[in-house]
Each structure stands twice: as C-alpha cells, then as structure tokens.
Write the structure tokens for this entry.
Amino acid sequence: MSSAIPLILGYAQSSLDRHSERRDDDAFLATMRADAEARTVVFAGETPVLKRRPDGASSAYHSLERAATLGEPTETAFLGTDEHGPIFAALIDAAHAEPLKAQGYGVADMRTVAVQGFVTPEETSVLGAAKALFSWHITHRFCAKCGAPSRLSHAGWRRDCPACNAQHFPRTDPVVIMLATIGDRCLLGRSPRFAQPMYSCLAGFMEPGETIEQAVRRETLEETGIACGRVHYILSQPWPFPMSLMIGCIAEAEHDRITIDPVEIADARWFTREQAVAIIEGRHPEGITCPPTIAIAHHLLRAWVDKT
Ligand SMILES: [Zn+2]
C-alpha cells in the first residue's frame, strides 16, 4: 500500500557527526564555538524554542549571538556537526518559554513539533537528541553515589561529582514495542491514556537481565495473556519522552485467547490485514485509528501489512 503522507520515522533522521571522541578536546570545542556557521538549539526546560523565518516557516537553529539573548543557559552541550557546520544545544529556565512565545518565537512541546512538522525531520531529530540529553541533566543534578551536586562536563555528555569523582553518563532507557501476529491477524491494544478510537502496538520497559525477546514475550503475556514464540527485530527509534529507545519487533503468537490486564490496557483486539489497512488509511468502519507516521508503531503495523 502507499500513502500521500511521507513515511518518515520521527526523531530518527539526524545526520550529525557527534565527534564523541573529541568532547574533552577544549581547543576543538573552542574552534567549533568560534565557527561563523555555528548554530544552537534552545530549550526552555523541556520545550524547544523555534526561530520563525521570514518566509513563515520555523527553524530549530539560532545563531549563537541570538541564542545568548534568549536567556542565561544553565547547561550547554556540543551536539556535533552537519554539512553546514557545528551545532550546540542550550538549556534555559522553563520560565522563559511564555515570554519568548509572546516575542514571536515558536514554543511548542516536542510531540507537537514532530507531529505538525514545524521543522524538518532532520531538525526534529536533532531537537529530540537535545531534549533527551537535557531531560537527563534536569533529573540528575546530584551524584547518584554520594548525593553531592554534580557538574556538567565532556561537552555536555557527562556529569562529574567533585566530592567523590564519580562520572555519570546520560541514560537511554530501552523500551520494547511489538506487534504480535497469528496467521493473517495482528494484535493491537488501547491504553487507557489514548484518545478514544486509537489502537497501537503493545509496549513496555525492558528490565535488567532481560533480552529483547524475553521482554517482548513478557510484556505481551502480561498485558494481553498472549504467549509468543519467535520474535523478529524490525527497526528502532529514539523517543525523547523523556529519554527512551523504542525497539520495534514483530512476535509470533502461539494462540489467540486474549485476557487483558485492565490496569495497563483498556482493550486489545485481533485485526485482519484488511482491517489494519483500513485503520492506516483512516477508513475503519468503527473509526479506529493508529498512531501517526512519526511513531514507530505506525511503521511496525505498515511493515506487517506490506510484508516487508
Ligand atoms: Zn559523588
């Protein structure tokens, strides 16, 4: 099947060269900062601040001079370089968001920026990286070993404890997201948190000591009572809410008897391939919808429908 809406997975389109091996190279970082083409993304708390361009479109990038007028950064990071030059990130206090909005800057949460396509998929992905990194800084201001205040280091990619010398690195939390299938049917569920007609793939956080396959089987069994056998990895997606990696799989169900966990799931149902196509195309007779094209669940469902 085809679609007029571009099938672009959100937050996954960054082409940045991160230069991760040079984050402690002060001379290199100074050269990057002095580059006439250097730009920065700016977050007011967890909300990106977008520049409005003269043509009415928005951009994630501000010049370093302009960014300095938006608010005093509490944290900064060097994200890397693209074909135009260096890209930094600056975190300013969340209280700046509303005044900046009043001054004409684009201020919207990361989900809206991605779903509405306020900036390019590439810029959305760079924003997603900065959002995840800053979400970690915001919630890890103190050393997890001794409790002393920690300091940003390594161009924004580490926090060091001056009291016990512990080094702390940004976290990415793995989440399995899966489409269980049996014959010509697939299993979709509705979270109590979803807007009414939307069904999606099941998902859950991986636990320490688990393989991806085990997490897929455990979550599917816990949420719907469906036991799964073989698990096939399909694709992954950085998901900056607050700092996850979605690991997308298709799982082969061993039976079709659904018993939902009412705490996690409002409903779960088997859908035929034909019904899944109707859902994707927005013409299911009950008005059932699925997540938008930026979401990995959409791509998993489509991969199964298209048998790719
Ligand atoms: Zn410490």
About this structure: The mean pLDDT is 95.
